[in-house]
Structure formats: structure tokens, C-alpha cells
Write a structure and sequence with these properties.
The chain is mostly helical. The chain has a 3-stranded antiparallel β-sheet, covered by helices on one side.
Length: 153
């Protein structure tokens, strides 16, 4: 599932955007991008880092049915994975990481935490808030500003 969490961090995708992705909506050869379908029927295309593209390329090879219309991250029945599945898998990943980084065990980490982390890291890297708003699929930079204030120390 590292491909899912890498994609979520790379793109700042909402859980619903990540689990709703179809195989054909993520290009990993050439200009690697993910075509996300956000809230309010707003679509955006986000570039993928080489490491994320490599993880997704490897993940696609593991899929039983990798047809363009199939879900990229399916449940056992090939349907769209539930949000609770993502939360459960993240909890397992955090537990495993906490063995090496014990401070993680004391933190509340949710799939939405990944999205906030993306926004904060972009801001800390000097990316303008209006570009972060586009990256996250926010209606306006004001929404992004509110989100960043909510998680700032």
C-alpha cells in the first residue's frame, strides 16, 4: 500500500480522490501525472515524482485486472476501496513505523493528516499559497490558508 500513501502525499489527494482513481487516470511513463476528480466535480492534474511513479508502476504490475477502467486501488472484490480500509491500512503502517520511530505511537495520524502534511511541506519549501490551493484542489487560497493555520504550531 505504499503506492497509495505515496500518491496521497505526492498529490495531496483527498481519500475519496485516491480511492476513486482508475488505472487509466494515472500515467507513469513519460510525464507522470495523476488525474484527480475532486469535490464539486473539479478535476485537476498533478505531476508525480519519479519515486511515486515507480511505486505505482510496480503496483500496476501486481494488479489482477489492470484495465484502464479498473480501480487503481481496489478492494478484494475489485470495487472501490472504502475509506475505512485506507484508515485501517494507514494505522498498520504507522504501527510498523512506530517500531523505528516511537514518537509516532503518540500521534494521531489519519489519511487527512497526509494531505495537511503535503500542504505544510509545500509551504515550507517556499511554494506560493495560490499554487498550493491549485495543487490541493481548493476553491480559493483562502481555504488553503485556513487549513494551514489549523495545523500550524
Amino acid at each position: 500500500m505504499s503506492a497509495l500513501f505515496s500518491l496521497m502525499y505526492n498529490t495531496g489527494a483527498r481519500v475519496s480522490e485516491a480511492i476513486g482513481l482508475r488505472v487509466g487516470e494515472v500515467a507513469v511513463d513519460g510525464s507522470a501525472v495523476a488525474h484527480l476528480h475532486g469535490k464539486g466535480r473539479k478535476d485537476r492534474t498533478v505531476p508525480l515524482w519519479r519515486t511515486t511513479a515507480n511505486l505505482i508502476r510496480s503496483w500496476k504490475r501486481r494488479l489482477d485486472y489492470a484495465g484502464e477502467e479498473n480501480f487503481l486501488f481496489p478492494n478484494r472484490g475489485g470495487r472501490c476501496m472504502a475509506r475505512s480500509n485506507v484508515t485501517q491500512r494507514l494505522k498498520l503502517a504507522v504501527s510498523a513505523a512506530a517500531e523505528r520511530y516511537p514518537q509516532l505511537a503518540r500521534r494521531s495520524i489519519s489519511p487527512h493528516t497526509i494531505r495537511h502534511t503535503t500542504a505544510m511541506h509545500l509551504l515550507q519549501s517556499g511554494v506560493d499559497i495560490s499554487l498550493i490551493a491549485l495543487w490541493l484542489g481548493h476553491e480559493s487560497p483562502a481555504t488553503t490558508h485556513i487549513c494551514l493555520q489549523a495545523v500550524s504550531p
